[in-house]
Amino acid sequence: MPQNPENIQDHVELFHQPEYQQLFENKKQFENGHSAEEVARVAEWTKGWDYREKNFAREALTVNPAKGCQPLGAIFAAVGFEGTLPFVQGSQGCVAYFRTHLTRHYKEPFSGVSSSMTEDAAVFGGLQNMIDGLANSYQLYKPKMIAVCTTCMAEVIGDDLQAFINSSKSAGSVPQDFPVPYAHTPSFVGSHITGYDNMMKGILSNLTAGQKKETSNGKINFIPGFDTYVGNNREIKRICDMMGIDYTILADNSDYLDSPNTGEFDMYPGGTKLEDAADSINGKATIALQAHSTAKTREYIEKEWKQPTVVSRPWGIKGTDEFLMKLSELTGKPIPKELEIERGRAVDAMTDSHSWLHGKRFAIYGDPDLVYSVVGFMLEMGAEPVHILVHNSNENFDKELKELLASYSNGKSATLWAGKDLWHMRSLMCLLSG
């Protein structure tokens, strides 16, 4: 077969190899397969307007959703804390998918365990699975914290995580004072950004319980949100160091997902120290770098911590300017000359490349905050958005994106496709390219 360590091919190219083509021909003998001409005719038909109308009329089917499910975001949030092991109350298969997805994306080992619920747990509940699972995890992997979330199975049967964790501690699975925050993360509602938000709120509420003091520690808290480019965390730290700002990142997974190759395995590289996270309740303010993956967490911080929160997305010139000015306003620290020079270089680069992007039409899909930020930057460059697809959209995002588009003359012809999937995007792109 052509797929081997010396010749790794993408699946699209792989299936065009002679061996697979012969396999497909053989299958037609007992599958009543259509002729090549009929397949080509239907393929061409799916590129037209008639098929587009049928595609957009479907209601009971999702094809290639542009989102993940809640536990994916939950475990992504959890590994940003020092020595934290994600624990998923659910089946092994689900957790294997989450680990594999993140491991393949970052090319880093991503640790996470499962309570391995099977048929008996689906009938009687997963309490015993958690008792055994927490005990094994604590003894084998020596974490400083275990963050628990759920899959569909545990949610459908109604597992009570708080009661299960209490029972597990009573059974001696982990010490009574060992932190085991949790979040209910049913995959059949929301998306990975919802799971991130739920887990972040769960971890912060657990670690900060009883930690409120009379005076502020003067620090600024940053919540990156579900941002897969972990280099942004390092940039935030660099900027704060340049400005002399004390800060805490909630949570910093930049080392976990981009660790150096030192020749020695570290199961829990980096991460926000648990004591710093616990003290974040005494911070001066919290800045969320994403809005829609931090909504519940920000509401919790404002209500329970009595701490002001700000959403600031430092993408493009406008967004970065607003971020730096807000940072200076909150801390009283001046913006360093070095950052002004860097801004000038960025503006110069934009000016130099403007002719290559000005007037170019584009389509985009992704998470709400990422799409908002990239579209804003492209509008600054003079590009013209045509189709904007956000599967995990919401009313607040729809409103703010439309306001952004309306504020630029080159954004007024764009269409937002909220709640649509990538098969819808295929129809849109076929007609756009035609």
From TrEMBL:
InterPro entries: ChlB/BchB/BchZ, Nase/OxRdtase_comp1, Nase_comp1_CS, Nase_Mo-Fe_CF_bsu, Nase_Mo-Fe_CF_bsu_N. SUPFAM superfamilies: Helical backbone' metal receptor. Residues 69-429 form the Nitrogenase/oxidoreductase component domain. One of its GO terms (molecular function) is nitrogenase activity. Residues 1-55 form the Nitrogenase molybdenum-iron protein beta chain N-terminal domain. Pfam families: DUF3364, Oxidored_nitro. Its cofactor is [8Fe-7S] cluster. Signal peptide: none annotated. Its EC number is 1.18.6.1. It catalyses: N2 + 8 reduced [2Fe-2S]-[ferredoxin] + 16 ATP + 16 H2O = H2 + 8 oxidized [2Fe-2S]-[ferredoxin] + 2 NH4(+) + 16 ADP + 16 phosphate + 6 H(+). It comes from the Bacteria. Belongs to the NifD/NifK/NifE/NifN family. This is Nitrogenase molybdenum-iron protein beta chain. The lineage of its organism: Bacteria, Bacillati, Cyanobacteriota, Cyanophyceae, Oscillatoriophycideae.
